Amino acid sequence: MPPISETAFETLLAQTGIPFDAAQKKMLHTAYPMLAAMIERVTAPMPREAEPALIFHPEIG
Amino acid sequence: MFTIAEASKLIGDKQLSPVELTQSCLAQVKKLNPTLNAFLLVTEERALADAKAAEARIMAGKGRGPLDGIPIAHKDIYNTAGIRTTGHSKLLQDNVPTADSTVVHKWAEAGTTLLGKLATHEFAMGGPSFDLPWPPARNPWNPEHFTAGSSSGTGAAVASGMIMGGTGSDTGGSIRGPSALCGIAGIKPTYGLCSRAGVLPLSFTLDHTGPMAWTVEDCAILLQAMAGHDPSDPASADRPTPDFTTNLSNGVKGLRIGVVRHFFEQDNPVSPATKQGIDHALEVYEHLGAEVREVKLSSLADYNAPGWLILLSEAYAVHEPWLKTRFNDYGELFRDRLALGGLIRASDYVQAIRRRRMLCLELKEAMADLDILVTAAAPGEAAKITEVPKWLMLEKPNFTMPFNVTGSPAMCVCTGFGTGGLPVSMQLIGKPFDEATLFRAGHAYETAMGWRKQRPALAGA
Amino acid sequence: MTEMTFAARVAATGLTPKPEDLPKLEALVKDMDRAAAALLHGPRSYAEEPMSVFRLPTP
């Protein structure tokens, strides 16, 4: 996965609605590649019919 | 110092007074808590009242069973009626619940004496932190070192003999990590076996409640009083609770053990002492009649990736309103780690839960002709408490998260000590709802070895 | 939410809609943003569980 651009990362941060200061943004930008590597690992191809591990469970009463 | 099993027998035989036992634990708290910071709140009056009530029941021949009069404490994410429950956070520092969590209620009904509330990493994830209203718990084997977390206070309090057992919670390893680094036993039961109702959530689909104690046998006794269906927990499994103690001493002859060696040799290589401890334990099992063979799973990183993405996404959803309005009231470690959860897209979360099911099926198939798995619990001895990286969970895949992802029961057992004099450990993993076999295997190893005779020096055993 | 251009949000997803479709898409997404904000509005217990639960594959 190519490194995230500054603009795209700013957009991700802005979408959270959290008022990060400049130092916090920088620190999160440093950690983000490790998170992106995890995302890449789970989004690797898998069978289309692979179901999620969570099941909708309508509660009664 | 007694184990729960020993104390219980003496109490039942009227040779040990629950009041005297509680007083001796309270004395240990007074002596050690200023160094170890294991307790956020000591409920001395409640403890003595509980102990007197237990003593009266036992003298009247109306004892409630093996936990009657046994001193315990709860991780401070378990709601306790009328007693402050903070999540070790400024955000809840004045929070006093009106009702007990299900597990707190069950242990009280079993006759335990409540000594107080125990330190945790903030909201079960942010630690070790020095910017919270209370300091972080420290390791009784060397207070300069980390306990691991998040059930940090429980690990420190049990190892140092302040309590005989306590509650932990485990979302990515929070029972097993501190059990491993504090040299005690701790089990994350099967997802759905123990109620999460009334426990502050971190990640709904990965959170487990479970017990921590000095021995495997004590964990079995505590889990017996903790497990069971709870309609107020939507994930609770509606099935009978097995008997965890009757076959505890049946040994491991004929048990089929799979070793997930690549986890701790290639995927995240462990310290020589940790590896030696596991290899020796496998020799012990073979000597006792078990069959041991190697098993291959997906990599540790493959299991950690969906685990952390699910954990961070779900935890972010729980905390989102406060993150937006009170971001800087959280400790730095919790808020910075959690902020990453806001950067995960919904579709990535869905891919993570699809991947999770594939891994569950992989493990089920791998264990089809095995009874338990053995692997590492932690990479080595505890690091210094001031040297724990903020992004530890992202930098290296941990050994515990895979079994939160699969929901399997998993337990830590001490396998000795490393070159720094701190404990090392192994992890045993069972099939869903087969905690009894895990306890049998853990108890056989503990009985064969002598590690349970050695307490931290400062505990003054 | 902090100000950002709609084009930047679309670019961050990796999707490449036709430029002439952007205004209509932006209007739709604004409606969805309002719906999401309504979902998040108001006090909500941290103990409120989701309706989807993790189920282990049966032994």
Structure overview:
The complex is a heterotrimer of chains A (61), B (461) and C (59). In chain A, 52% of the residues lie in helices and 5% in strands. Chain A has 61 residues and is mostly helical. Chain A has a domain at 1-33. The longest helix of chain A is centred in the middle third of the chain and has 21 residues, at 22-42. By secondary structure, chain B is α/β, with parallel strands linked by helices. Chain B has a single domain (4-300, 350-459), classed as Amidase signature (AS) domain (Amidase signature (AS) enzymes, Alpha-Beta Complex), CATH 3.90.1300.10. Chain B has helices at 4-12, 18-36, 44-59, 102-109, 152-159, 176-182, 216-224, 261-267, 272-287, 300-326, 332-339, 346-366, 392-395, 401-405, 435-448, and strands at 39-42, 71-75, 113-118, 165-170, 185-188, 208-213, 256-259, 291-294, 372-376, 410-417, 423-430. The model of chain B has no long low-confidence stretch (mean pLDDT 97).
Quick description:
The complex is a heterotrimer of chains A (61), B (461) and C (59). Chain A has helices at 6-16, 22-42, and one strand at 54-56. Chain A has 61 residues and is mainly alpha-helical.
Keywords, separated by commas or semicolons:
heterotrimer, A: 61 residues, mainly alpha, 52% helix, 5% strand, B: 461 residues, alpha/beta, Amidase signature (AS) enzymes, 13% strand
Strand order of the largest sheet of chain B: 1-3-2-4-6-5-10-11-9-7-8
Oligomer: heterotrimer
Task: Tell me the greatest interface.
Answer: A-B, 29 and 34 residues
What amount of the residues of chain A lies in strands?
under 5%
**Count of strand segments of chain A:** 1
- The chain-level mean pLDDT of chain B equals 97
Domains counted in the coordinates of chain B: how many? 1
**End-to-end distance of chain A, in Å?**
47 Å
* Unreliable spans of chain A: none
Give the ordered list of helices and strands of chain B. Answer: HHEHEHEHEHEEHEHHEHHHEHHEEH
Rg for CA atoms of chain B: 20 Å
The portion of residues forming beta strands of chain B comes to 5-15%
Number of strands of chain B: 11
Distance between the termini of chain B: 6 Å
